[in-house]
Give the backbone structure.
Amino acid sequence: MSDLVSYRLTVNGTERSVTDGVLSESLLFVLRERLGLAGSKNACEQGECGSCSILLDGELVCSCLVMAATVEGRTITTIESLSPDGALSDVQQAFIDAGAVQCGFCTPGLIVTVHELLDRSLEADEFDIREALAGNLCRCTGYGRILKAVQLAATGRKALLEGSPDVV
Amino acid sequence: MTVLLPQTIAEACAAVASHPNALLLSGGTDLMVEVNSGRRRPQKVIALIGIDELRNWSSEDGDITIGAGVTFARLATGELASLFPALAMAARTVGSSQIRNAATIGGNIGTSSPAGDSLPVLAALEARIVLQSSAGVREVPIADFCVGPKRTDRHPDELITALRIRPTDGPQEFCKLGTRQAMAISIASVAVIADRAKRNVRVGLGAVGPVPLRTREAEAFAAENIDWATGQALDPQIHARFGSLVAEASHPIDDHRSSLAYRRHAVGVLATRALRRMFP
C-alpha cells in the first residue's frame, strides 16, 4: 500500500490535482503549500482563529479542519476568488475605508466570513454581526472598525439594490 | 494510506467491517485538531461526509430521527430548533459559525467528551443512539452509550447513524458557562426539559462528571413544585433550592479549565437560572 495519496480538488472553479499528498494534510496546508494559494492564513490549526476561513459547497468552514483528501468533487472557494482580476471586492474596499486592517493577518478570513454573511443577509444588526464574526480573531483592531466595515459594506449593497447610490 | 468515501450507510458499514482500524471522520472539528497537532497520524480514514442519508432528519411514530451527519448549524435553526429548543440553544453555543457548519451531532456523540455541548441535552431528552453495522441495527439509550470520558459503547464495526428523540411539550432551557460566549469549551452546562404531558422534569449536566449526568433528586423536586395546570411562577427559593440540589449531584474535577469547587458552584447557578427562565 502506498504511503501517499493522490486526488483532485475543485478550487475557485478550477480542477487541481494533488499527487503524492499525505493523508493527514489539511485543506489549508494543501491550498497554501501544494497549490500556491497563500491567501488563506495558517495560525492556530485548531479552528479557533478563523484566519483560514473558506467556503466548502458554499458553507463557511475552517480549512485547517478539513482533511483535503476527503473533499474531492466538492466546491472549494477561497479568498483568491473574491477579487479574481485584482480589483477589490466591496467588502475589501469597506475594510480599507473603515480602517479595519492593521497587521492584516486576520483580514482574508474575515473578508470571506463577511462575504458569506452579507450574501445571506443584509439585515444583520450589530449583535448578528458579532455572532457571525465570533470565529474570527483579530488581535490588532479591537473589532470596532471591523464592525463598521461590515455595516459600511451592507449599506453599500443595500443602496445598490435600492438604486440610490448616493446613500453610499 | 487509504481514504474511503462511502456514499451510503451500507457502503460505510462494509468499509468499517473491512477496515476496523480506520478512523471515522465526520465534520473533522475534533479529529483534525488532533491530526494537526501530530497526536494522530491516520493511515486509514473513512470519511462519512458524502453520505446524504446521514444528513437528513425525519418523523415517524411520534419519534424524531436525526441523522448523525446533521450539523449544529442545522440544529440551531428551523424546524428542528422548534422541536428541540434546548438542543438548538446548545447547538448555537458550539464553537463559531465555521465550526457549526462542519461539526455534526453524530461526531459530538461519537467523541463523547465530558464537555460535549449536545450531550447534557440529549441526556435530558432521553435520546436513543442508533448504531448500525453489517450485522444489523441496535438502539442504545444515551445513558448507557456514554460509558466514560471519550469512551462509548460503540463497537469497532459499528457506525452511529442517527439519534432518536421523542419530542415533549413544555419549556426547555440550556445554559452553558465558558470563558466567552463563542469558541468556548464548557466549564459547566445544564439542560432542563419540562414535560407537561408526563408532568416531569429532566435535567442533564455537562462538564461536571465523566459522562453527562442526570439528577433525580433535583428533577423530582422541580416536578413537585411546578404548578402543571397553570405553569405559574415559582418562588425564587424554589429556583435556588433546585440549583443547590443540582450542584450537590454534580461530580466535577479540577483541571486546567476550572477548579472542582468553581464548577460545582457554577452548575448550581446555571440550574437556578435555567429554571427561572422556564418558570419565572
